[in-house]
Automatic annotation (TrEMBL):
InterPro entries: BRCT_dom, BRCT_dom_sf, Chs5_N, CHS_Export/Cell_Fusion_Reg, Fn3_2, FN3_dom, FN3_sf, Ig-like_fold. It comes from the Eukaryota. Residues 80-174 form the Fibronectin type-III domain. GO terms for cellular component: exomer complex; trans-Golgi network. Residues 336-347 have a biased composition (Low complexity). One of its GO terms (biological process) is Golgi to plasma membrane transport. Residues 386-399 have a biased composition (Pro residues). This is Fibronectin type-III domain-containing protein. Residues 283-335 have a biased composition (Polar residues). Residues 283-462 are annotated as: Disordered. Residues 168-273 form the BRCT domain. Residues 350-370, 449-462 have a biased composition (Acidic residues). GO terms for molecular function: protein dimerization activity.
Amino acid sequence: MAKSSDSFTFTVGKLDAGMAILLGERAHLIEFPSLLLPPGATTGSIVNISVSQNISEEKKRDNEFWELQNDILEKYGTTLPEPPQLQLRNITQTSITLEWPQLNLATAKLRSLDIYRNFVRIAPIPSPLTNTSTKLSGLAIDTDYSFKLVLRTTAGTFTSNILRTRTHTMTDTSGISVCFGNVQDSVLLENAKLALNEMGAKWSDVIQIDTTHFVCTTPAATPSGAQVTGSVSSAPGVEYQKALQLSIPVVQPQWILACHSEKKMIAIHPYYLGASPATPMNSAPFTRPQSMSQASLPSPSGSRASPVTQKNNRQSMPPPQRVTSTSPPASSFVNQTQYQPPQIQPIEPTPEEDETSLSAQEETEDDDDEMSTRPRKGTMSKNFKFPPPIDSAVPPVPDLPTVSKPLGHRDSSLDTEEVALSPSNAVAEVPAPPPVEKERSPSGNQNDTYEELGETEEIELN
């Protein structure tokens, strides 16, 4: 079998549909596609297969591969997401408003955007692809804070700059941001705007994220709408409704003038829409009113009471009053007259009734004297003593007579026989003790609730 460096000889061993088995010189077996065999080749045919390297095609393939890699690197590998730049928009005594430019993610995908306060994660930013600002409330007055944003993408994590700031004091009014609504008095509106400019505050006609107060004198959209009842123009304005939804306090322009005159933040509760702006401002701003138990009540003379008097006056309720039988009870309701018992007209007694009533009155007075010394039912007086015993002692037994003669001897002078009496057969008669006199029960008092003494019992002594 001829052999060359570029050609190899094989024998077709088996020809099947689609595949042919070629046998080499050293029992090499090769599966070869039957479509590549020369026409007319069958089982047992001898074929030569030439093998050569195609260098030009290899170069073309390599060039196409590296061009694709360069395009991927230029599009996805050289441009990275930009870290957000955090900026301060507005700051007040208890809140801060932050903003940043639109996020540039390049070709990466957004995972999350979180806000950090004092290097502690607070919450994720809602809708970070469209939202570019946030407002944080509930801060402490005159306190240092630091803020930053952390951007997480499929291309990595990127951190913004650290923004350090300090909340305002009560005398700093530059953080006020007002949205003006419908103010009917044009002069009052101009004075309020001039006061805001002098305080370093800002104002606008639309509600923004850093708006702190909504100022108006009527919720209607137009000045004429406040006077026309039942018309479409009398409905609340859009900005007024938005202020209610965002929980922005709605105040009157007099609040701005009060802050300007006091040169500090003033409590807004006397200046709410609908309240009287003439309410005196005696309490300090943002302080809780003092309770009645802590307030020092003035003395009746008008001067300041002493500390002892103030301590005694610090009570939430007056002491309870004892109601006597002579005075009617005071009413516990306001503006209610006291109870007046019905007056009974006296009936003039007849002469016979006068005598009877006088005797009954005397007996009642005697009974009252006894009852004043007697204890009440269920109690015992400390001065109680048992009555002295009644002289009811048993009389002594007389001595028995002596017998001078023996028994059985009959005296001629006596018809009877003298027999000595022994104590065993002697019976002594004991007189009964005299009855104890009962205590006289009061006959004039029918409502007497005291118990009477029981009857005495006779006891025989043997």
